[in-house]
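User: I'm curious whether this sequence folds into something compact or stays loose and floppy. Could you predict its structure so I can see for myself?
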Amino acid sequence: MAKAFFRLQKFLRRTQFLLFFLTAAYLMAGSLLLLQRTRLVIQQGSRGAPTNQALPVPEEMGRAGGSEPRALQSPGPRLLVHTDALQEPALQQHGPHWLTARNSELRQLRRRWFHRLPSDQEPLQTAGLKAMKHTAEHKGTYMGCFTHDSRERTLKGAVFYDLRKMTVAHCQEACAERAYSYAGLAYGAECYCGNSLPAAAAKPQECNLECRGEKGSVCGGVNRLSAYSVEEPRAAATRRRNVIYRGCFRAPENLTDTFPASLTQPNLTVEMCSEFCSKKEFPLAVIRGQECYCGFPTRRFPGAEGQRCSSRDGGSTAGGQHCRVYQTPVQDTRCTDRKFLTTKSKVFVALSSFPGAGNTWARHLIEHATGYYTGSYYFDGALYNKGFKGEKDHWRSRRTICVKTHESGRTEIEMFDSAILLIRNPYKSLMAEFNRKYAGHLGYATDHNWKGKEWPDFVNSYASWWASHVLEWLKYGKRLLVVHYEELKQSLIPKLKEMVEFLNVTVTEDRLLCVENNRDGSFKRSGLKQKNFEPFTQEMKDLINRYILTVDEALRGRNFSGLPREYVPR
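Assistant: Here's the prediction. I'll summarize afterward.
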């Protein structure tokens, strides 16, 4: 009895010691994490902020109310003027206000994955309410659970992601607007469209994942697809399905070889041809007389000759030598497949830009052209929820083709082996970023924001950052490809080819044509909201124009092409 009691006493002593040790280890680990987080916040205060340096400024631009700026090709003599001569508060000193504002910007970007900003919540909440509202109005028939392979899809049409707000109704409506017959959901958040059902059925219980945006609804499963038939959209949605006229082209020698599907019918109309091609899941409809051809965009058309096609709904003239080309509601899916790099990249590439310069759009183009996800130095839940899966991946994982960054500190620049430096007109960049800060990725700031003190303070703080961001990357960047947003927009395929070659990826011509056909992406503002006033005062214009000429001179000094002429005057 005594021996058993002794053993129990010994066991309890060891247990007490073990609990004490675990408690001490837990407290030490928590202390280390707290110290590391504090250090990170302190470091972020110096990241990305423009350095208080002397900027070269042309003396002509310093004159108040002076004449128009000279052309960028001959900017004239330069003077080295200290920052206090610019009479700009943000450059005179980096006081607590500047550090707090800049540090807050970085913390907001990093927190975005865990907590939504109020500006981003409103559009997503509205979309969720719309989807829930249409659940009762727009129901299709449930067709069953099917096997699903993302690489060899049966529903080969459009693909949509909403990793936060996906519902059955949202997927059905998206497919209906693009003239598809079936909608399928997988992984609780992915929507696929098509005109034929998968061949291999699965057990009903294998579609067991709940929709991310609708409790109680099933949105497929792992490698399983919940398929629904799609009802015809109502009149309001039908209007958005109108085909887009692309132009009149000289017909290739053999249209049958160029396009895989065709139809010959008397009294052929645009609607008939578009409907036929949509059912065949082709994004292009070509009409020549009473002949309708379907296929994908191709370079085999010699060029547009609009004067030769006199009627858009009748037969083609000139003896059948020309044809009219239309874009159907069907999405070109030859470039929608994306994945992470199978092996870690040996070259660490940045996609660097000032905020509001089109970085998200450039990522959309790069991902669809290369087939690989892009990463981000920040966590943006709104982007991740719309299919930018690289947002969640750690930015130093090297599993992405390039990494988005707005940083302009020397340390942050030198850790990249090379970079694509995206530059946009500062007037457009400042307005785009101001809209994002106050209304999210797709919204617009209110007139109250523009006419209040927020806008002048924003310009004073961010205009200098636009200039210093470019100057710092030119100074510390190891290997740069400078891309101007306006040139990328105007000459998409040639510029995108340069970017893809810089990333050391080989792509096909068909994939680039597909990117051109899906060029807008999910985060393009409608552009419908126009302000009835000029947001930039003359003082703002003088300040920004000085920075424009400074950056132009710096680019030419590094043997890059200067800024596009359209940047100034304004």
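Summary: The mean pLDDT is 76. Residues 2-44 form the longest helix (43 residues).
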